Amino acid sequence: MEFGKILRRKREDHNLTQAEVAERIGVSRQNVDSYESGYKIPSMRVVIATADLFHCTTDEMIGRKIS
């Protein structure tokens, strides 16, 4: 799944730690690590929260290309 790679890139681009992202989206730091590693699939709530945090669309967070 693309979400983990995109999450890591956006987190690093915004100079945030996993703990900071976790606090802002309402999950544990371990969950953020699991999403980034691809071990855990995020809920829709998490996808929406990360999109809001990084001011992008949910489609962008999941790597969906719209033409």
Overall description:
With 67 residues, the chain is mostly helical. Helix content is 63%, strand content 0%. It is built from five helices and no strands. The protein has helices at 3-13, 18-25, 29-37, 44-53, 58-61. α1 packs across α3 and α2 (18-25) crosses α3 (29-37). The chain is globular and about 35 Å long.
Give unreliable regions as ranges. Answer: none
Determine the structural class based on helices, strands and strand pairing. mainly alpha
Q: Share of helix among residues?
A: 55-70%
Radius of gyration: 11 Å
Count the helices. How many?
A: 5
Report how far the terminal alpha carbons are from each other.
20 Å
The SSE string, one letter per element, is HHHHH
Strand content: under 5%
Brief sketch in words of this structure:
The protein is mainly α and 67 residues long. 63% of the residues lie in helices and 0% in strands.
Please describe the structure with a list of short key phrases separated by commas or semicolons:
single chain; 67 residues; mainly alpha; 5 helices; globular
Explain the layout of strands and helices.
Elements: H1 3-13, H2 18-25, H3 29-37, H4 44-53, H5 58-61
Helix pairs in contact: 1-3, 2-3
